[in-house]
Amino acid sequence: MRIGVNGRAMEAGNAPLVLHTIERMKANGLEPVLTTSLAAWLQELGHPMPCTVLPDADLAKHDLELCISLGGDGTLLDTVALVGRSEIPVLGINLGRLGFLSNVKLDTVDVALAAIKNGRYMLQDRSLVEVTDHQELLGDNNFALNEVSIHKRDSASMIAVHVHLGADYLNTYWADGLIIATPTGSTAYSLSCGGPVLYPTSDAFVINPICPHNLNVRPFVVPDHYTITLKLEARSDRCLMNLDSRSVAIDGQSQITIRRARFSVKMVQLESSDFLETLRTKLSWGLDVRSGPPKA
Fold this sequence. Notes:
By secondary structure, the chain is of the alpha+beta class.
């Protein structure tokens, strides 16, 4: 079973963990192949290559059955961008801190790898959000797993974002920016801005202003069959458009068209993986000193 292994530059102290995990893949009968970014980081630290390196970043060409992300949630988002439209399944092994999406812990790696080898896992389709214009800036990398967000840039002034759902006017947000989050992204940036948590397979978006200047503006959940149009009105010449961890500068009077992507990310779900349990353990959801352990 040929497995892509992706990672980004990280603390040098993580190199032994990465190399050990790759060796455990081999021991479990898998064939790991490294992406160029992970191989470059290991080479920079002076480590010999533990396995084959992919010659380029187009994972769809290399007959991969699955792609494993080694790192934190940011690395998993990078991996989703690499996988792109190929729909190669993705699994995250957590070497970072929280690891909400990359939820396989190091002490359970052997169990997870054995489950992959023996096919004891399911695939869960996660929806993506896609920007359909600004192709000159985004190219084919115009999608995001967590969110598309707009931010003011180089100015203390707020921006106005005029939002339409299809042909219908929704609202004008006077704020530092605006987030359009997927269900997966509802536990990321949107959550830190007071947004609701959505179940990962919900067919919805969250529209969430960043530091709005209106007391009566709240996050809004809409069906994801809508095309969302944003018309920017900024005092500065440029704003930032972010797709997960990727940022581009756009004109401060731009129009941005957003929709649900016509392809999805296939996230590997192991038998021990449960979204509600992850909410409770990673985000302390529902934690109350009056409550004991949950009843079976």
